[in-house]
Amino acid sequence: MESKECETLWSNKQGFIVRNRKALVKMGEPNVKITDNDKGMTGNTNDGSSEQQRCDLQSPFNDATKPMFKIKTYAANTDKRCTISLLALVVLLSFATRFYKILEPPHICWDETHFGKMGSYYINRTFFFDVHPPLGKMLIGIAGYMTGYDGTFPFGKPGDNYEHHIYWGMRGFCALLGSCLPPFAYLTVLNLTQSPAAALISASMLVFDTGCITLSQYILLDPILMFFIMGSVLSMVKFNQQRDRPFSAPWWLWLLLTGTNLAGALGVKFVGLFVILLVGLNTASDLWGLLGDLEISMVEFGKHLLARVFGLIVLPLSVYITIFAVHFVVLNKSGPGDGFFSSAFQSRLIGNNLHNASMPEYLAYGSLITVKNLRIAGGYLHSHWHLYPEGVGARQQQVTAYLHKDLNNLWLVRRPDSSDDPPGYPELVRHGDIIRLEHKETTRNLHSHLHEAPLTKKHFQVTGYGINGTGDPNDLWQVEVRGGRRGDPIKVLRGKVRFLHRSTGCVLYSSGKTLPKWGWEQVEVTCSPYLKDTPNAQWNIEDHINPKMPNISLAVLKPSFLEILVESHIVMIRGNSGLKPKDNEINSKPWHWPINYQGLRFSGVNETEYRVYLLGNPVIWWLNLISLVLYALMVSIAAVSIQRGVSLGERSIERSGVLMEAGGLLLLGWLLHYLPFYAMGRILYYHHYFPAMLFSSMLTGVTWDTLLQCGDLLLPPSTAYYLQRGGQALLLLAFLYSFYLFHPLSYGMKGPLAHEPDSPMAGLRWMDSWEF
Prior knowledge:
By secondary structure, the chain is α+β, with helices and mostly antiparallel strands. Among the domains are: 3-63, no CATH class; 357-556, Trefoil (Trefoil (Acidic Fibroblast Growth Factor, subunit A)), CATH 2.80.10. The protein has 18 helices and 20 strands. It has helices at 21-26, 80-99, 112-124, 135-146, 168-179, 181-193, 196-207, 210-216, 222-241, 249-268, 272-291, 298-330, 343-346, 561-577, 618-643, 650-674, 690-709, 717-747, and strands spanning 10-11, 17-18, 33-37, 40-44, 358-359, 368-373, 380-387, 397-402, 411-414, 434-439, 445-452, 460-465, 477-481, 497-501, 507-514, 523-528, 539-545, 552-553, 600-603, 612-614. The chain has a six-stranded antiparallel β-sheet with strand order 14-13-10-9-6-17, with no helix packed on it. Strands 7, 8, 11, 12, 15 and 16 form a six-stranded antiparallel β-sheet that branches. A two-stranded antiparallel sheet has the order 1-2.
């Protein structure tokens, strides 16, 4: 190696990279003497040799797979029996806190009304719609079925008693997965830092956090999601530890477990994408290091790359798709989710009127049809005898979108100038044709004009006008097929069409807004002057009756697995983005969450009710917030010290390495699971922060353990030892005592509210925004 390669980056025997030649002497290397030799460097030792081997002053890039900071082997520095004993204690406390009073209260709490009901749908094989992927609800259904629940409880609303129905299995399953979070945190931090103390602090924060306990005790997706997130992180860390044993059995095991856990996280909620991004960034860094290792051939590097592609892309994707395949096979009966999906999708559901049905394949004049909007829950084009009230556009017959199948959804397809159909085989309606739609029940035509719509004021009103098919030119609409050309026939079920109003040039549109009581709280239909190609402006022909035409079985129009998989994801994504705050509903803000600004009522409001309130342990949450600032300060000090060549001992170097590498990974996990919520337009809730809180708690354990170890820099060894142990004990006691104070929030309480002196929570309402 030429000497000029060593001018800026050097390494000492601990493997620590030094950017200052003088610092190498200061940092515990008395046998190394640095002298200038022309523009290069020659290291001379005091043993009389003329030149030291260049490997003592080498560029770190010559061995890019070795970590910048060497962390001592765990087996040489810790007592395994102590470590196992602490893990056993964490497991015991975690299960005890999660399963205590698991059957209380014996009624529906908060979102149990949704996810318990969805578990019942799986048992009954009834199709439903949810904005999240199916794995979490599927596992809840399996847990209920395996423990004797028969799927008959209606899960109507929060507060409904379970009575004789078996619900403990579903709650117990969620508590089981929630109980795994503290042990997973313990093992993750232990493997990152090799410090049982840091691992115990991190795990204890999760054991004694009232928020984590509450989320784990009910039939919810959160404990299932967090189980897979923590499982992914632990597997990733264990896989990283096998870096020196590539392609061994443990190496493959942890790689495949990481991929499986990633599929599980994404299969429960789309929030699982954040941990996928974390693992992806870690993998990219790992591969970049391998690419810089000159001892590894490109063939060997290709093997590493392909192994990770298989374990972290192909395997998770296969598991994720399999989850949906099982979902579609199990939920094969018509249910409340039908209307969210296309007519072709519905044709595969037993009990749906389109299942095993037959109808003419192409739309024709004289046909009796229903027209369905393609937005989520867009409804069927509908009319009835009721008129728009005074002051709401023209006082003509209402036209709406109705979510249910009804006789008032039926329309006749007419020519623009005649209500009579010529004898013989009907003429097909084609792309670009001008038609009228006559409402079968009231014989009025679909009509629009320049009056403003009832709710969407920049759109035009749509009404029913005329009688017995006789109206005016404002009843004419041009039919266009998406992706079609003039003259193309219009296929029922699968064809996506839009209706352009001839007089005004607007397009028939379902706004998604709910009309007042005068409109029977049905969905507003307008004519939009904005001709964007959106689902709101797209429709399909669902029912199609024409006795003059031959019918075909809808089985030939049934969508493929890939088509229903893609449609499901489109519907879920649109459903997620469509979750907006209702009137007078408080929308939680992401900045509220780290400061524990406001919790969530799970059960009960007044003194006589059994009250459960989701709120994180404030001592733990505020310590997490302080620790984020403290971590940034400590890393800054360490980085500046290194850059300035400050003399650091071997132990300080190791601590800096742990703080930067382990802490940096956990900080990245927190950022990835928290910051994206600032960019989300949907309604947000307090419980969305809990995955980020897991990373924050682990980072707190690493930060405070490192800080307490630094006592030996200023104090005698014996004093530093007692300071470290005392600090650790003080933290653990603070967690335990604060849990004792706030545990009624998790396990429930009755009687006086917090502002009354004889309340169990008297004096503990530290923020006015806490509603317990």
